[in-house]
Give the backbone structure.
Amino acid sequence: MTEQTFVLPDVGEGLTEAEIVQWRVAPGDSVAVNDVIVEIETAKSLVELPSPYSGTVGELLASEGSTVEVGAPIITIGSADAGTPAPAEPVSVPEPSDPGGAVLVGYGTGGAVSSRRRTLRQAQGPSAERPVKASVGVVAKPPIRKLARDLGVDLSAVTPSGPAGEVTRDDVVKHAEQASVFRNIETPEWGTVREETIAVAAPAAPAPAASAPAPAADAREESIPVRGVRKATANAMTSSAYSAPHVSVWVDVDASRTMELVKRLKASPDFADVKISPLLIMARAVIWALRRTPMINAAWVDTEDGAQISVRHYVNLGIAAATPRGLLVPNIKDAQSMNTRELAKALENLTLTAREGKTSPADQTGGTFTITNIGVFGVDAGTPIINPGEAGIIALGAIRQKPWVVDGEVRPRWVTTVSGSFDHRVVDGDGISRFIADVASVLEEPALLLD
């Protein structure tokens, strides 16, 4: 038998390293060409790697949780015939197959539901499967079952809403969100579960004698390695904060008519299969306002011949997404060409891929402007940091009923705060103010979108 070594390939976008998240095989297992053997995490996405060889798994050369350089050996596979390995299919990130709700800044607080995958795996060993109930008799597609495992949801406890009595993605996410609310009623102990990009040691067994050292879990401090999405986010935010002079502005808005429009769209048969939220109207407002003030959609570019300002005549709309892996900013390509239904569907698909950790590197690059909906966390306003390569970012605050003066009378209205940060090298104060005012005017009167 000849042993062949598989090295970590370059999965695209010029990435130089990846973390071993989960081995799908163990020494002694038989594999065929294109069988998935390992799940890795780059700074941008989770990727399943297929085997380029067929044979018997020999040795796993990298442990789960370790960071491996591209080109480093990760596994050996023995085969009876040492011929040229069959070509594997290109590594790609699967596209969403079943639309539904997902945790996104702007679609709910389910993003706060932490994944226990890493802690459970370390407690059980590298080849352990995630402990999930069998859910016998539950009708659900494989992607839905995987989502339930990732969220720690028992499918047998979920009420199905599918037309054939099957559990849908929305059912699983809503169940997880409800469970999150009830878990937060009690004051928790110091947590040991972090983002999936962070390895946390499993609690040590109790000491056999009083004089023995205390378990590692009882330490007053813990060290968390910075890698994966957290490392990429830290580098990008530091670069942006110290290279672009930020200026922030905000305005309070009567969003009552936006809330009325959202209610009507939810009741419309044309939008029956699409998730609708105020974020959709905010996205339409931003696109409309960017057309009126194009410099907000520009970017400062340093070249060998000097600095330039690149004005984009298209909108790749970034949406800040809170996921179990950390903060991601996928963007909707050419959002300016979409009607309201198409944009709503694009937002929904974006949330789905972000929740599953399957957002491709291409979907996280090339953005021209970003929206972050901090309101879902009960926050009114903020001074967000601009996404690198862009000139601005806008935040939608919580929409609450407040007293508001209308025609000289104080009335209860749905009020929100729109705030934003902008690169003062690219756009001046009048352009910044005009843009924020335009977004606010659409939220106050969505009929402006009809022009």
